[in-house]
Design brief:
Subcellular location: Nucleus
CATH architecture of one domain: 3-Layer(aba) Sandwich
GO molecular function: ATP binding; ATP hydrolysis activity
Distance between the termini: 31 Å
CATH superfamily of one domain: P-loop containing nucleotide triphosphate hydrolases
Family: Belongs to the SMC family. SMC2 subfamily.
CATH topology of one domain: Rossmann fold
Strand order of the largest sheet: 2-1-4-5-6-7
Protein name: Structural maintenance of chromosomes protein
Keywords: ATP-binding, Cell cycle, Cell division, Coiled coil, DNA condensation, Mitosis, Nucleotide-binding, Nucleus
Largest sheet: 6 strands, antiparallel
Amino acid sequence: MYIHELILDGFKSYSSRVVVGPLHPQFNAITGLNGTGKSNILDAICFVLGISNHSLVRVARLEDLVYKQGQAGITKATVTIKLKNDPNQTNNPLPPPYKEMREISITRQIIIGGRDRYLLNSRIAQVKEIKDFFQCCQLNINSPHFMIQQGKITKVINMKPKELLGLIEEVSGTRMYELKRANAVKMVEKKEQKLQEIQSILSEEIQPNVERLQREKADYQNYVNLKEALHHFQRFDTAYRYFCAKQTVQQGMEAFAELQRERSTLIAELEAADRQREEAEKQLEALEVARAEKDAPLRMLRKRKEETEKALSRLQAETRSCKRDLDMLHISVKEQEKEVQRLEKSLENRRSSRSMEAAQAEQLAEEVERLRSELEEKSEKLQAVSSGGVGASGSIRDLLKTSRSEEARLEAQDFSILQEITYLKSELEAITEKEKNLCSDRALMENSVQEQRSRINELKCQIEALGNSDKAASAIQSALAELQEKQRAFCLEAQEAMQELRSWAKIDVRLPKGIDPSRFAGQIFELVSLKQEYATYSKAMQVRGEPRKKAITYKGCENVSSWRRSTQVLVGGKLEYIVVSDKDASKAIFKENNFAQGRRRVTLLPLSDCHVGRVCDKQALMANRRLVGLPPDDTSGVLRCLDMVEYDVRRHSKVAEYAFGGGLICRSAAIAQKITYQKNCRLAFPTATAEGDVFQTGGIMAGGSVRDVRQTMLTWKRYKNAATSAEEVAVRIRALETELAPLQVREQQSEGLRKSLRLAENQLRNTERLLGSSDAGSCRARMEEVQKLLWEKEQLKREVEVKRREAQNTILRLETEIHDIETNKDKIEATLSKAVKALRTQLKQSEGRLEELQLKTSDVRLQLQTMQQELEGARSDLASRIEKVGQQQQQLDAKYAELKEKISEQDKIEAELMEQATEAQKECQQQNRAADTLKRVAKAKEAKSIALKKLDLAARDREKTLSSAREDVKNLLSAHEWLVAEEPKFNQTGTPYDFKQLRPETARQRIQQLKADIDRLRKNVNSSAGTLLEKTEAELQILLSRKAQVEADREKIREVIASLDEKKQKSLGNTWRLVDGNFAAIFEQLLPNAQAKLVQVDPDDLMKGLEMKIAFHHKWKDSLSELSGGQRSLLALSLILALLKVKPAPVYILDEVDAALDLSHTQNIGHVWLTALQEWSAKRWQAGLTHQRRPMDSLVDPHAKGTEERQRAGAAVTIPAEMLNAGFLYDYYSLCD
């Protein structure tokens, strides 16, 4: 059998279908340049043979074998090998029916995407069938000794001892032993596994079953014994109950008769007690009447005593207050006396310390008064003399007198002014001289004052430029404070609402890591909220001052509130459901928050699995309104729950329909009941009323008040409204703060400027004050003051001089007139005039001196006057206080007298009250004794009544006991007929019914215990345990015998493995020695004067591996590293040829074994191959791949001249590179010349 033809299609570099062949039956050589695809033909053969190591065909995966990995439009690679077979060949290894076939085709096809299939003679075959076919031909592609691939020559040199030993094993055929040994080991493992299974069945099933059945059999036997014991004790208990019931009947009849006798006695005693009680009541009534007659005066006395005590307390308080006021007055009088003494002493000290000028002024004042009086007297005499009784003359004289007086006054005033002017001028000259010396200091200070005034004017201009922003800032601040107060109110309400929600509805959810937050929606009451017209406004709205809005379709807030609570009742706990997107999120959140361990029940609603029930649409709503006789648009009678809420239609419509879609709110229970329980089930929906009645379509009806229902949706609405309002107010606050900020900056700037202005003004005042208080300033101020006074005095002097001249002219005129009229009175008038004039001159001088002294002593006089006035005021105050003390003392004496009178009156009332109380106490004692008698009689009667009731109860109980005992006897006899036959044995010694030997209580306890044991065993007792136990024991014996058989089989297999190991050792030793001889002979032919051999790594153990040794002229080398590349290739090639010579294969494939050799070595290889061909040519098919033509020359017979002879000798197939690149492969035979 040999390869006749090779067909490649889409394999590696062969894009289209290429046929290589027909090939020579014995030897074929494939030559060509590098990259022409020689090795791809070898890879195609390996691909069909089923190679499993893809690296040997230079790919990472099978899909890489397709032309350009399928990127050129070719998606599959197909390789077909056609084999020629000789049916008449002896020892043909092929299995039937292939042994009889002359041509066999094997195809392997790989398709992009992972599909791989085999065709055997155009029929799809399994991989195992193909492998078995090649193994029959001794072609194991995964351990090939018949194929030398490209580069394997160099790999052989680097093989480890174990790998070299593997080549020997392959040649010796011990791989078959290894396969059989591996199969045997697998068989042993299977036997071991079988034993483990049997042992597992025995230990886990059979033996526990046997033990369990044994226990169940014992339990069943115990169960039977317990039932027998229970039957015995139950008969004993029944007999005891029957015996006791009969005894109870007999004893009860006697006791009942005794109770009737005692009852008759008690009835007689009760009648006597009633008579005694009536007598005691009559006596008590008489005493109470007498006591009531005497209690009226006693009450009056007590009332008078209370009034007297009140008046006495009031008088005592007034007396204490009056005494306290008197003490305070005494203290104030003493203090005022001290004050008067202090003032007198101060006045005396002030008077004694007055200066001499004051005394002189007083004397001078007295002198002025004396002169005035004398002048007045002389004037009157002169007037009298001058008038002489003449009216007209007297009038002139009066005018003259007046004029002269005025002239004298003006003269005195002129003199005084002249003195003052003289004094002021002298003072002005002194101040001017002083001011000249201080001129420089004053200039500096005046410049400083001027600069400060300029600074003040500048600051005022800046303040005016900034403007007055106080009013605007104040308005904004007040608005801001109001908004902040509103925000606090909103935040407080939101916090209160959230706390209420957390107490019963709100559930805090913690999302697991890795969960998308969009998969968590929240609770239903957060997703669906009440519409604004159905929500009562919160406290925050009241704070904000917004008016309340009424619902559109409801009359009054109370109706809206009731309907809203009805919605809460109808929806129920669904509002607290947590909505998530799917089940996975639900499980993750439930586990993350550990809801299973929490106290509150938590329900998660996955939207993906949420099933929405029937939803009441608009048509169904109108139909139900018509059903109850309402207009279709009447919202006050029937309303959908869904119409009361608002939600995100796109995202939460499913949640809203799930919770609210199938519910209706009705005005009355009759309407609700009619809608829910109507015959048309399609229009029947759950309903609720404002009173809290709920009607479900399943027939459930509930009722009750809804006033205490927790309104989750309203509370959430309150929270949302408050939170939203708080946020809105916060936005407005931020806007106002933004508006206020520049105003505050301007205000701060203005405040800074005003502060600077105040400082500047204060500094200016200080500077001016300093200027005024300095010497220069004082001089300047005094000079200005003196100049002003001097100007005023000069003006006044000029005015006085004018008036004086006018007065003198008037006097001269009058005197002339008088002289003309009275020429005879000249002497007297002259004398009087002279005297008057002298007095006037003297008076004028005295008044001038007095005026000077008065100027000096005016301050002292004022002080004395003030002190005198204070002293007089203090004396007056002291006198008034002393008068008040006298009045207060009189008032206190009157209070003491009144208090004494009240005390005596109280003593009389107390004495009379004591007398009346003694008599009342005696009567009260009599009344108490009568009441005690009545109580004692009533108590005795009550005791007898209780005793009678107890007797009646005892009689009824006894009667019930008798009836029950008779009934028990009857029932026991009807239920247990054996009682009549066994009754003589009851309570008899030595019988099973000896109630003294076995206590009935013990028997009952034993019955209870037995019942508990039987009940416990009844659950687990197995009546067929015995039968099952026998069956299971039989199965146990069968398994034990099977276990022994498996153990015997395992031992036999182990013996076979040991035998295989021994045969392998012998065969491996023989093959090693043959290969070693061939290896030495071939290497010496390839490389003359060189020797080679295969030696054991461990002389005692061949299985440790083999290594190659080489010698030149019989001098052995320690290492192969000293060899050249060609020598190493020859060494490896020698080993491979030695292996092939020991065990010839049906096919030999050599790929570029001459790659590293020169011409002389390749000729030696040719001779070796020629020798080998002569030995194998009749049986073997060879193919060689090389890029050199010359090595093929030695393989072709040079003496064959004709083409037919050359063809018989061999053929060389060359693949030109240009043909390969063109996509075509041409096969031709050529000989080397």
